[in-house]
């Protein structure tokens, strides 16, 4: 046993005694395609890609005995939480709390039919609700509903017409919901569910953390019952905080105490639920318990009358008839609706994928766009605001045993009961309690800040994206902040692709493995083998040229100005003499006192043609092999640059070969006319780097044999009579023997 403080040595690595030997021909691309025919590509039609009614796939397979009881328990638990969260998130959307109940009910009905996730709980989410509220407040601020009033105590007093204001805000929210649904439905029909891939995890983490901070500030004034102006746009959160602290002396103590106690109790019980989730069969619905208790206390003490507390006051009973939103408002909210539709979809799909992986099934991203699009269109007709999914509500649905969206339908039934029967009973509830429930549910999003140090150690670029997106969303607002984060994320990708890595490769002796000579020892260095680890497009063709230039320059010794040649008027120094060039008569005697010499660097203009009559210094490499296995795509500029590189190296007797290109990259080369030149053929493309190297080695051996034969022939031709040559050789041998004796 090791003594305390001794460092444990790592376990020895396993030794692999097995080996393999492969015997196959050397394949270039042309030979391989001739021997192995490509399969024709099968493209699915739009109709085949769409699964319009996923319910028909899973509902007939529903196991009533095994799943129904679990779905009922889960549905009731989720419905209780959803009822309260719907009311609370209505405050974020800047609409009366009763409309939050509608938003927790109607979207579930359509998602049950068209959705592909079995576990997500559809309804309001704080981030999306806040984005909706931002649009609502910007289009219907309090200043638009001021009316003059006179009474005995105050003449010509300016008041707010709350009824008209709330009606206008509900209309704006429902119109925005309809437009978001239309956009999502179009995105799903066009099969662009991939758009969520551009919302990387660091970007989403920074954005949702900033949104949590925005939610906190917006609910803080409700907890304190402090009135502020409705700020929107850049620095709005800063202005709101300043005004809250300026008016903090007007805090209503009854609301503050109720809100603070709600936050403490909810967070404490939620922590207990997390720690003992394996022992507690059903999480304690603390929000529901606190709401019932707070409503009873408010009603019994009459907090509104005695302490001027802010209460809900009015919750409509029953359902409102469907109404067509105002389509004329679309132009004013089009920009915001795009960001809301993408964010709402991204949140839902991200949560859905987590539980799909956990329970071993898949969700269809494009179908989810369609499902949420239909849900939001349907909900917009019933005065709802935008729906997605809530993390906490989905966690309740899954952890309480929910198996399918049957649990979602049951939760909708619970919400329906609350709408029909319990609305009036909740009217004495303090708004500060609902705001405190919202704040208590933000813990998970705020805890994402702890991921930044870990992210910094793993990937500094991702950490910077997280911080930048968070700060931009706080300062600029959620819509502009999200856009800024996306642009910044794209910029980091462009920069990483524009300055790619490249390596000179060497071979592991007696294997077909090729590794970077910089990173590994005991590697056999082979001149002229490069790996370019990036797509080749207009933004980084200069990087490709630079790596080729550096390789050639490393293999060309310094030389004088007597042996330079011009390439479009720019000095270059890579090449060898050939028949197209006029040799310098004094090339073998470069030491001339009248001509000064100097050292130069290689500079090549790859977009120009090589002049025919130039002097070219010899290059010790005869071939260049480019490992393009990491090249995922090419554009027209990249193809043109590769074509110029091949042609110009051919002009100086250096052959260029490509290895490991993917099939779609070769197809792009064909489409862009790469092989239109007779001197560029498919036989310069090889399946692997090792194929190319073996081909070159075979060429070198063949060339050596050919050179030996040509040398012998030349000697024979120099003699007038071959017999005289043989006699002369025999005489020389005899003289040598005599000398030895």
Automatic annotation (TrEMBL):
Keywords: Membrane, Transmembrane, Transmembrane helix, Transport. PROSITE patterns: SLC26A, STAS. Gene3D superfamilies: STAS domain. GO terms for molecular function: secondary active sulfate transmembrane transporter activity. The keyword Cell division does not apply. Pfam families: STAS, Sulfate_transp. The chain crosses the membrane at residues 89-114, 170-196, 202-224, 231-248, 254-272, 284-301, 334-357, 369-391, 406-426, 463-495. This is STAS domain-containing protein. GO terms for cellular component: membrane. It comes from Capra hircus. It is a multi-pass membrane protein. It is found in: Membrane. Residues 529-696 form the STAS domain.
């Amino acid at each position: 046993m090791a003594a305390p403080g001794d460092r444990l040595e790592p376990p020895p690595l396993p030794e692999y005694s097995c080996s393999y030997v492969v015997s196959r021909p050397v394949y270039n691309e042309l030979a391989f395609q001739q021997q192995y025919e490509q399969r024709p590509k099968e493209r699915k039609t739009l109709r085949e890609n769409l699964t319009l009614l996923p319910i028909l796939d899973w509902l007939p397979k529903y196991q009533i005995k095994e799943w129904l009881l679990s779905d009922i328990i889960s549905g009731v638990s989720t419905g209780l939480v959803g009822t309260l969260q719907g009311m609370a998130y209505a405050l974020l959307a800047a609409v009366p709390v009763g409309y939050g109940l509608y938003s927790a009910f109607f979207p579930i009905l359509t998602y049950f039919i068209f959705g592909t996730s079995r576990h997500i709980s559809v309804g309001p989410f704080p981030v999306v609700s806040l984005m909706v509220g931002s649009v609502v407040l910007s289009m219907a601020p309090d200043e638009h509903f001021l009316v003059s009033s006179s009474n005995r105590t105050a003449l010509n007093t300016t008041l707010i017409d709350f009824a008209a204001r709330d009606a206008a805000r509900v209309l704006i929210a429902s119109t925005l919901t309809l437009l978001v649904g239309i956009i999502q439905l179009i995105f799903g029909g066009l099969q662009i569910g991939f758009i969520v891939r551009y919302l990387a995890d660091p970007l989403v983490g920074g954005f949702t953390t900033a949104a949590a901070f925005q939610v906190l500030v917006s609910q803080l004034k409700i907890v304190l019952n402090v009135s502020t102006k409705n700020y929107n746009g850049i620095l709005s959160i800063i202005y709101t905080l300043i005004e809250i602290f300026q008016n903090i002396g007007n805090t209503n103590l009854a609301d503050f105490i109720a809100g603070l106690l709600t936050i403490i109790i909810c967070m404490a019980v939620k922590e207990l639920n997390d720690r003992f989730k394996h022992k507690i069969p059903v999480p304690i619905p603390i929000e529901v318990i606190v709401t019932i208790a707070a409503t009873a206390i408010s009603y019994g003490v009459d907090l509104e009358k005695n302490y001027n507390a802010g209460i809900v006051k009015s919750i409509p009973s029953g359902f409102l008839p469907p109404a067509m939103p105002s389509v004329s408002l679309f132009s004013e909210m089009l920009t915001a609706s795009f960001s809301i539709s993408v964010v709402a979809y991204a949140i839902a799909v991200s949560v859905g994928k987590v539980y799909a992986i956990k329970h071993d099934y898949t969700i269809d991203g494009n179908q989810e766009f369609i499902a949420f699009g239909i849900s939001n269109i349907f909900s917009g007709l019933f005065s709802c605001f935008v729906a997605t999914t809530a993390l906490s509500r989905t966690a309740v649905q899954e952890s309480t045993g929910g198996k399918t969206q049957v649990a979602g339908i049951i939760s909708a039934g619970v919400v329906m009961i609350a709408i029909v029967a319990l609305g009036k009973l909740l009217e004495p509830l303090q708004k500060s309690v609902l705001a405190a429930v919202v704040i208590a549910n933000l813990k998970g999003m705020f805890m994402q800040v702890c991921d930044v140090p870990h992210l910094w150690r793993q990937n500094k670029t991702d950490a910077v994206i997280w911080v930048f997106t968070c700060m931009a969303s706080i300062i600029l607002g959620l819509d502009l902040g999200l856009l800024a984060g996306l642009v910044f994320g794209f910029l980091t990708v462009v920069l990483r692709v524009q300055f790619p890595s490249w390596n000179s490769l060497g071979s592991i002796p007696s294997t077909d493995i090729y590794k970077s000579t910089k990173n590994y020892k005991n590697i056999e260095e082979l001149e002229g083998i490069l790996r370019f680890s990036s797509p080749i497009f207009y933004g980084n063709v200069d990087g490709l040229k630079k790596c080729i230039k550096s390789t050639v320059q490393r293999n060309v010794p310094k030389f004088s100005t007597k042996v330079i040649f011009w390439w479009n008027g720019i000095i270059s120094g890579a090449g060898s003499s050939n028949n197209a060039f006029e040799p310098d008569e004094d090339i073998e005697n470069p030491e001339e006192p009248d001509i000064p010499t100097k050292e130069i660097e290689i500079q090549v203009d790859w977009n120009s043609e090589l002049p025919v009559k130039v002097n070219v210094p010899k290059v010790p490499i005869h071939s260049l092999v480019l490992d393009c296995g990491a090249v995922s795509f090419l554009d027209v500029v990249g193809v043109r640059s590769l074509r110029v590189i091949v042609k110009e190296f051919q002009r100086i007797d250096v052959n260029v070969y490509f290895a490991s290109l993917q099939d779609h990259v070769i197809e792009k080369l064909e489409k862009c006319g790469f092989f239109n030149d007779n001197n560029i053929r498919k036989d310069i493309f090889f399946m692997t780097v090792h194929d190319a190297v073996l081909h070159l080695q075979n060429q070198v051996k063949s060339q050596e044999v050919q050179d030996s034969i040509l040398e012998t022939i030349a000697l024979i031709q120099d003699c007038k009579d071959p017999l005289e040559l043989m006699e002369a050789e025999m005489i020389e041998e005899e003289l040598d023997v005599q000398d030895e004796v």
